[in-house]
Structure formats: C-alpha cells, structure tokens
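Dear Dr. H.,

I hope your travels went smoothly. While you were away I took the liberty of generating a structure for the chain from your last submission, since the lab meeting agenda had it listed for discussion. I wanted you to have the full record in hand beforehand rather than looking at slides cold. The sequence, exactly as received, is reproduced here:
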Amino acid sequence: MAIAKAERLMNLALCLLGTRRPLSKRELRESIEAYVEASGRDRGAASGRDRGAASGSEKGAAAASDDSFNRMFERDKDDLRELGLVIETVESLDGEVGYLARRDSNRLPPITLDAEEAAALGLAAKVWQQARLAGAASGALQKLRAAGLPEDVDPYEAHGALEPRIPVHETAFEPLMLACRDRRPVVFDYRKANAAQPGTRHVEPWALECWRGHWYLAGFDRDRGAERVFRLSRITGRVRSRGSGFTAPVPDVVTVRETVASWAGESADRSARIRLRADAGYPLRAKATAVRELGNGWDELDIPYGHGLDAWLVEFGPDVVVLEPAELRADVLDRLRAVAGG
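The corresponding predicted structure, in token form, is as follows:
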C-alpha cells in the first residue's frame, strides 16, 4: 500500500509539473492509472451492493466512485504540498477549477560551494566508506559535482593524510537510523551489563551517535518513563517498529556523547583504586591517572570515578578487583551477584 501511494503521488506530481495549463480533476482522474483503477474498483463494489435495484445501481456506483476519488485526490494534493510542492489552484472563465505546479515555483536555487565546504562534504562522504550508506554518500557527492561543485576542488586533497571511518557492524544501526528519521517508536531486546538475560525495551528513538568506536541510541524509554541511552552492541535480535507516534517531546539538543561520557566516569571529580590483571583491561589503562605494578600478574590503577563506572567495571569480569571506595566495590559486587544468579 505504501509503494502504491508513493507511485500515485509521483504520477500526480509529474502531471502537475508537466502541464502548461491547469488540469481539472476530471483530466487528472483520466490521466493517472491509479485513479482509473480505483474508480473501476469502486464502481464494481457499489454495483454489487445494489444488485436488488438494477435501475439505480449505475448511478449509485458512479456517485460512490466520485466521492472516493475526491477524497483520495484531496489527500494526495495535501500530501504533495506538505512535501514542499507548490500547487496552484486556478479557476477558468467558465468556473472550472484546475491545478498545476509551475516549474519556476518548484525549482531549487543554484548550489554554490567554496573550497572549504566542498572539502567538508568530501570528508563526510568518505566517513561512510565502509558503512551501508557508502553508496548514498558517493551518489550525493556526484550530484553535487553535477550541480556546480568546482571541478578544480578535490574534497580529499587538503586532508589526504586522514582516513576518517565510522564502523557500523551492528545490525540494529539501519532500522534505528530510519526510526529516528521517521519518528517511529521501536521495540528491541537489550542486555544490560549486569544482566544474564536480555529484557524487552519500548523506546521512542531520538538520535544515534558514535563515541569511542561504539554506537549509542538516545531516546525515551516508555517502560521507565525517562530518557535513556542504549549501546547498540547490546541489542539482541531484531529491531521492530511500532506504528504509534511519540508520546514524549523530543528535546532540541540530544547529548548522547555527554551522557555516555558521564556514565563512563569521564566527567568524574573523584578517583577509584582498582587492581587489574596484567595485560588486560586496556580501556581502563587508557583512563588511568596512575599505574603501579604489584607483581604476581597484577597492577594497581587510579581511575576517574563517576556515575555508571560500576557497570563498566563489571564487563571486565575476573580481571578487575575494586579496592576503594567501598561504595563502588559494593555496587560492583551486587552486579556480579545479579549476573551469577541469572
């Protein structure tokens, strides 16, 4: 049904853009195949209902068909206007109403890019080189060149030493990206760091962001009634869409990276002391403010302590032992017990 409607809207738009004079509803109805087919179905259905009154069946079928077409046409016309097409309504001398979309009213202004803007777009296209959006990014760059991007500007020349890449290995990325774009709620199974089994989450997705090699989704968690951030690598199974609209307002600014950073202790003003197995936990070593060798295959680290650090430490399992503060040690032990208990 969605494909059929999109095709019908495209055909209507082409008719309105291709005409030099206003077209009446009757002319549009006879020119667009989808309207012709719909009218035939409506007449057949109305005739079937009026078999007991043969003399009035044809008139009833025609009236029902006209009403159905008028409703469909008005919806299609409104949808095209919402998409940005400027449709004019013109009344002729004999009172007949016609419609057309003038090309000069629906033409985008010429695109002009300086060298810095071209370089930025080139880098943006190169970022997605390994992602599923690579084809779209490359095609967009080619269209910009055709629309006036300076031929003597190489988008990559000024940044030849850079190889920006955004890895997208999670299968949940594309459906979540589309859900964020279309403002569609989603349902997925999510495994928390301290849980042995995944749980179902009902989320209104707001934005996706990559931070330190991992993708995160920010959105409104309906079950908890609050904003939450989800790591895509912990989403299990398929992301399912839900037809209902959003129930919570979308904030003007979604701070995915800042939220994740605070949970990981990036904005911490305290310090924690942990014991870490040698040759393990390299992300923890990168965050450490001090490292001391203890011998026997263990090191002692001082790391920033902020909200959510306990959940992060649990991911390293037996390679990490929290020494202090006592509250962090207790939180980590609680999470480990929860995992062990299933």
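Two observations you may find useful: The chain has a mean pLDDT of 78. Residues 90 and 98 are 5 Å apart (CA to CA).

With kind regards,
E. W.
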